[in-house]
Amino acid sequence: MTVTATRSILRLxxxxxxxxxxxxxxxxxxxxxxxxxxxEILRELIPKEQKRIAAFKAEHKDTVIGQVTLDMVYGGMxxxxxxxxxxxxxxxxxxxxxxxxxxQECQAQLPKAKGGEEPLPEGLFWLLVTSQIxxxxxxxxxxxxxxxxxxxPQHVVTMLNNFPAQLHPMSQLSAAVTVLNLGSKFAKAxxxxxxxxxxxxxxxxxxxxxxxxxxxxxxxxxxxxxxxxTAVGAIDSKKDWSWNFATMLGYDNKSFVDLLRLYLTIHSDxxxxxxxxxxxxxxxxxxxxxxxxxxxxxxxxxxxLHGLANQEVLIWITKLVEKIGETPTDxxxxxxxxxxxxTSVVPGFGHAVLRKTDPRYTCQRDFALKxxxxxxxxxIVSQLFKVVPAILGDIxxxxxxxxxxxxxxxxxxxxxxxxxxxxxxxxxxxxxALGVLAQMIWSRALGFPxxxxxxxxxxxxxxxxxxxxxxxxxxxxxxxx
Length: 481
Ligand SMILES: CC(C)(COP(=O)(O)OP(=O)(O)OC[C@H]1O[C@@H](n2cnc3c(N)ncnc32)[C@H](O)[C@@H]1OP(=O)(O)O)[C@@H](O)C(=O)NCCC(=O)NCCS
Prior knowledge:
tricarboxylic acid cycle, Citrate_synthase_AS, about 0% strand, binds coenzyme A
């Protein structure tokens, strides 16, 4: 196939996705404006979606949708289309779309808190689950549900209170979520032999419970480590999820609460192949309950090439300030970046899929321009935006020189007084729950099977290549096999 033909197909796919995105779910979702009960809506949507997918599979199951080359296999499976993940889709140039909506569209269309300017993460969750923009009443219903489910079992509190202060907050989060599975409704239903068609209902219950409890767990970790173990206080049932989270952490600044709403919205989902989403998808496919699956995802998010990068960025910028001061010149920044490249990656830049500036970066930059335009650290982030892409762009092996989401978040949190960088990935984790758990409900509803890709050894790959050569197949024929 020629490059031009491939491009035309890609253009066609993109425009189809934009115009018909989730048309199956949306066109049939008429009931959602009449009820505020998310589970009731799912009960209507699921059979329709099951039917739509069954018909699609029956008609097209033998259609070849991609090729696999040796390079892809050794290259961390980049670009291999091997997962179905419904809640979001990443375009390498445009960035993420949540159920077909860009971040800007979500900011404009999702309901906001009274007096707030950023979308409520409750609304984003509703969108991820149903593919529809919720009404204010529906978002209020989610808030209420989460507030009602927020209590933490005493054994989890005791465990958190007994962790050594040196234990990284992400390890604490993962451990706390793992032991929360004592109360898993999914695990109980499975051992009670509940029929497969009902799995999603228990995955839903666990997901709602877990999302509701995460801010309290995160706040206990924060206060134990950085606020002398002071109590997080009670949930205010009249306030939204982010307001309660900010308050439990000990922050009452109105703009910080709005930042948290934005932060928790944009970090939620980034299609299915990234380490945390893929991990939760994989572990969930073994019918491990949502707690175990999400805890596994958090262990992946804790890696420096994934979620931990937001902590790494601020550590790196702080060292820059220590070395060359708060108002460096572009030339000094350039030298600092070149020095960094001698020993490590430049944190906050590059991406496995994106090839342009991450829109999650751009919306955080817009927030900074509005709320903290004169902050010195923000100015350094802006200088890095100007200087780094040119440097990385000159290094042939780097596919994307542009900033990603992690390049900006730390500076915003720091501005409002959250200087404990080790904690940043926990915030990312709380947000990531919205995406991976929305998908998990659907994974169980659609009866996704155990994930089990085929692996090869280098010797077996060599044997495959040798056999192909012997039969005279050329490289491109081989990859189509
Ligand atoms: C995100 C990241 C892991 C993607 O990796 P990837 O898919 O392998 O990206 P590429 O294909 O462009 O990488 C090719 C090479 O360029 C390097 N590279 C990519 N981004 C780089 C960066 N920001 N600084 C220095 N080198 C970088 C890679 O390490 C790799 O080098 P290697 O072949 O010697 O191992 C990578 O860009 C990175 O490490 N960025 C910094 C960490 C970060 O911000 N992570 C958060 C991601 S949201």
